[in-house]
Write a structure and sequence with these properties.
homodimer, 208 residues, alpha/beta, four-stranded mixed β-sheet, 20% strand, globular
């Protein structure tokens, strides 16, 4: 996976409680060439948050200018107050270095990214079953019954959109989910349509 | 890779001398759930060849009947004398058991298989360069200069058709090529379009 070719953009969605963060975190810990996407936000930094690491903190005016400049892969308003967006420049710069970028995002945002970046690899992390997802949410011990019900209902709606993704990874055992993600990255790097340059080099330019 | 889902048909092409057999052999040795496709032929068995292992030996009449019955993924005449074909039934039976089937075949045959079996995974094994392929052919010590020239020219023609394949695997170090093939199998098993049943089970049948 450390070849000198353009890195991949891996768009990762999945319901709350499925363990996206755990899987992506384990993947990044193993592979220094994989980076998490850093979002732009108009909200104020919280204590300990570092510019360029947790977020790029920008004013609403700056954010609006970025929208005008078409500088986002996707962006959205939250509660009609703060803006969040995925800056193209960060993702492109990392990919040009040969690094892969993981963008954790909800289904709606993922579909926008697919439009602005058609070569993104779309991965949905799914629970073994809705029942197991519910048990995991209960197990957290931090969710109210109402919140668990809402999250389970939302999860079902999200799962229905699974066919819009390229891959599904079942997060049953974390290590297996990580291995599945590694295989997806490796296989995608070997897709012929991502290797036009190499094919040109092998054939002297001619293909039929 | 040992999950109870339908296995994959992996169509593998690549120029003479690239090491297809070595890569596929190593893959099969590691994974008992991967099988080589067994062809039907009208030629006579050679000493030691076993029916159903090396080939299915059939008469021309039987072969013609199989053509009529649409029983081949692809078939061809060789030297206007003997017929060779890939029987659908063998491939399907293995895939239904959850096994993967590797079909080593030339580019022309591969394209026919892609038509009759659109969910086949098309893999092209390529050399690091044409120069290196030529060196390997020379290194065999069994090829005449003329044969090396012909094979190199044929290899170039085959490489030009690389974009028709889903994946390309560079056979530089065999172990790495095997790992690439493993990743392709694993990733393909996680493609959403191969998991319609699982998605239906997760969502209770509704998708949007």
């Amino acid at each position: 996976m450390a070849r000198k070719k353009k890195g991949l953009l891996l768009v990762v969605s999945g319901p709350a409680g499925v363990g996206k963060g755990t899987v992506d975190g384990a993947l990044i810990a193993k592979h220094p060439e994989i980076k998490m996407s850093v979002s732009v936000t108009t909200r104020a930094p919280r204590p300990g948050e570092i510019e360029g690491v947790h977020y790029f903190f920008r004013t609403k005016e700056e954010f609006d200018r970025m929208i005008e400049q078409n500088a986002f892969l996707e962006y959205m308003h939250v509660f009609g107050m703060n803006y969040y967006g995925t800056p193209k420049a960060f993702v492109e710069a990392e990919r040009e270095k040969g690094n892969h970028v993981i963008l954790e995002i909800d289904v709606q945002g993922a579909m926008k990214v697919k439009e602005t970046c058609p070569d993104a690899v779309m991965v949905f992390i799914a629970p073994p079953s809705l029942q197991i997802l519910k048990q995991r949410l209960v197990g957290r011990g931090t969710e109210t019954q109402e919140s668990i019900d809402v999250r389970t209902a939302t999860a079902l709606e999200e799962l229905k959109k699974l066919p819009r993704y390229d891959y599904m990874v079942i997060n049953d055992v974390v290590e297996e989910a990580v291995a599945d993600m590694e295989a997806i990255l490796s296989a995608e790097l070997n897709r012929t349509e991502r290797n036009a340059e190499l094919i040109t080099k092998l054939t002297g330019g001619e293909t039929i």
